[in-house]
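Lecture 7 notes: from sequence to structure.
We start with the chain below.
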Amino acid sequence: MEDLMGQIQEWIAREREEYLAQGPERFSGPEYAYLLEAEEVIFDLDLHDIKNILPTFDVFEAIAGRSHNEFYGTPLCIEARKAFPWISKGQVRELEWQRFAKLFGITNRKAHCFFWKVSFWELRKGLVVFTDEEQ
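Predicted structure tokens for the same chain:
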């Protein structure tokens, strides 16, 4: 497990370096990976937080099978699915995300804030439909 964790940490670190090297314009706009001015206030996140959290969230979503990003389908991702059986398949659950994020140095508070930022983005984009709404 130590070797697996080390490999995942290396993957995340490489991705984080790429994010940190990118200018603020890469992170401004209406997508979940961006940070709107209002979100900074509402979710208590700043650009540095986003650049640090995103690589870990990308890996988490790939392990959950919710995102088919660069990590998804790699031998490392397949191995991680076996090592983290508590990560639900096909969905992102807050406490699972917090538990995973904590393994990689993200506080529960920041993981919680990011989770809800993404959740509200999904609502705004119409990706979540409630039973009392017309489809």
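Points to note: The radius of gyration is 15 Å. The CA atoms of residues 35 and 41 lie 10 Å apart.
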